[in-house]
Amino acid sequence: MNMDTHEDFLGRIRYPGYHDKIMTAEKAAEFIKPEMTLGVSGFTIAGYPKAVAGELAKRARNGEKLELTVYSGASLGEEFDGELARAGALKARMPYQTNKDLRNSINAGMISYHDVPLGQMPVWVKNNFLKHIDVAIIEAAAIDENGNIIPTTSVGTSNIYAEYADKIIIEVNTYVPRCIEGIHDVYSPERPPHTQPIPITKVSDRIGTPYIKCDPAKVVAVVESNIPDNGRTVSPVDDEFRSMANNLIGFLHSEVEHGRLCNPLPPVQAGVGSVSNAVLQGLAESDFEHLTVYSEVLQNSIFDLIDAGKVDFASGTSLTISWDKRDEFFENFEKYRDKMILRPQEISNHPEVIRRLGVIAINTVIEADIYGNTNSSYIDGCRLMNGVGGSGDYCENAGLSIFITKSTAKDGTLSCIVPQVSHVDHTIHEIHALITEQGVADLRGLDPVERANLIIDKCAHPKFRKALHEYLDNAESTCKYKENPVDMQAALNFEKAM
Asked: 135 and 198 in contact (C-beta within 8 Å)?
């Protein structure tokens, strides 16, 4: 054990009552019994517990049948989701995941998975819709003088799990610099009928506490950790990404010119991943100034925009920096700390706040159909990718709801614009504009046939447009009902015909 690291760990535990609860991860894991339900910190591979998970995986590999149900904020890193999935330690998982081994186990029917919009997860827990939480495992940067938890790189649903669990295990992660303390703003509305308006009128408003409230009587273990977040790889920006970014910026300019958007723009939200990251990077080269961000994930592109002097303030629930930029980011953390805030996902994804702020929601999808329905969860309608995430929270309540995808997949052999999506996550009622590298389809106020023609002409790749128009023409001629003409059999056979 590195003595300097260990001394740092001890210095971060400012509540004397926890000193006799310090123990190894192996010992702490003994509080977790088979068939328990765990509520763990973490959101999009940030701020998740790592040390105790490794010990649980060891027990499972040694033959113990754990069958754990795990709730989180969103996806967890390899040290949790990957390790426990491969070890066969999981019975059920929700509400979101991105780990390939966990995904494969879910698709094989080995692990039960329930997909739920991320903003709903804390509400479901508070209303006892789900199994009771036996143990919460929360990663902390420090513990304050009253025993409360200072989170690390995410808040997610950690505050709710700490409140509703019977027992709490705290992992104090010394890899995360102490200077992160102070960027969090933890607040949770009361349950109905006692709910009050959430007093956020601008992105930078603080309404809660810089810590997660914690009942010291429920804390059974404090564990030392020095393991960094696994991080997320960001793909380099290619020509198609640049075209999508340019199309987005052109569309936003048009909205300003026509008086439909103010300038400076309303707060921007962007989904996680390489597409969103690349599209947001394009804003750094635009002439938009004094941008604000009200989103789930604060990723590389957000801080590139801050560096470029484009973003004044950013609010999220998770700080997800790619592994190659992580150390550099923390070394320069002081220049960002006054320009950011991390909230619980119950607030970052709350319809009330999103609607009040008029958020511009920019989310990615696997495919979109010519009528405007989108699919962000399943390949061929049955093979789970990640889950719906928080896109529904935003698109249903945004001032402007934009979905982005490349027009093709599989090296151009498959069209991402199809007659009918194989699975519907977001309906025609939740999308204002669809953007690909080909162009922009503004769908507001259009009937189904008008939408279909516009999406084909503006968003589909040229080599698929003829086939899509032929499908639409056939549907119009054969469908008894002309307002929304659909040929389901032809739609199902579309990709096979390509």
From this structure: no
Burial classification of residue 204, based on how many CB atoms lie within 10 Å of its CB (0-12 exposed, 13-18 middle, 19 or more buried)? middle
Report yes or no on 351 lying in a domain. Answer: yes
State in Å, rounded, how far the first CA of the chain is from the last one: 59
Q: Which of 268, 274, 298, 273 is nearest to 286 (CA)?
A: 268
Q: Inform me whether the pLDDT recorded for 498 exceeds 60.
A: no
| Whole-angstrom distance, CA of residue 434 vs CA of residue 453 | 13
Number of domains in the chain: 2
286, 293, 295: which is closest to 394 by C-alpha?
Answer: 295
Q: Which of 164, 199, 225 is the last residue of a domain?
A: 225
| Per-residue tokens: 35 | 């068939």
Q: Of 366, 375, 271, 249, whose CA–CA distance to 316 is shortest?
A: 271
Distance of CA 307 to the CA centre of its chain: 23
pLDDT category of residue 54 using cuts at 50, 70 and 90:
very high
Does residue 60 register a pLDDT over 90?
yes
Q: Which helix (H) or strand (E) holds 356?
A: helix 351-357
Instruction: Quickly tell me which residue has 């990615």 as its tokens.
Output: 364
Q: Residue 303 is part of a domain; what is its CATH number?
A: 3.40.1080.10
Q: Does residue 483 sit within a domain?
A: yes
* pLDDT (average), residues 90-94: 98
Q: How far apart are CA 399 and CA 254, in angstroms?
A: 15
Picking from 492, 431, 441, the residue whose alpha carbon sits closest to that of residue 254 is 441
| Residue 98: inside a domain | yes
Domain boundary among 181, 197, 225: 225
What domain range is 362 assigned to?
A: 239-497
Q: Per the structure block, which two tokens stand in for 230? A: 């696994």
- What are the catalytic residues? 296
Tell me what the pLDDT averaged over the chain comes to. Answer: 95
Asked if 186 and 297 count as a contact pair (C-beta separation under 8 A), the reply is no
In the prediction, which pLDDT does 1 show? 43
Determine contact, residues 183/341, Cβ cutoff 8 Å.
yes
Do residues 307 and 164 share a domain?
A: no
pLDDT per position as a tens digit, 158-171? 999 999 999 999 99
**Would strands 219-225 and 167-173 be described as parallel, antiparallel, or unpaired?**
parallel
SS3 assignment, position 373: coil
Residue 265 corresponds to which tokens in the numbers above? 């723009």
Pair 361, 305 in one domain: yes
Same structural domain, 116 and 197: yes
Indicate whether 243 and 209 sit together in one domain.
Answer: no
Report the C-alpha gap between 498 and 495 in whole angstroms: 5
Report the sign of the C-alpha dihedral through residues 216, 222, 228, 232, in that order. Answer: negative
- Is residue 280's pLDDT more than 90? no
In a domain, 233, yes or no: no
Q: What is the pTM of this model?
A: 0.95
One domain, residues 316 and 387? yes
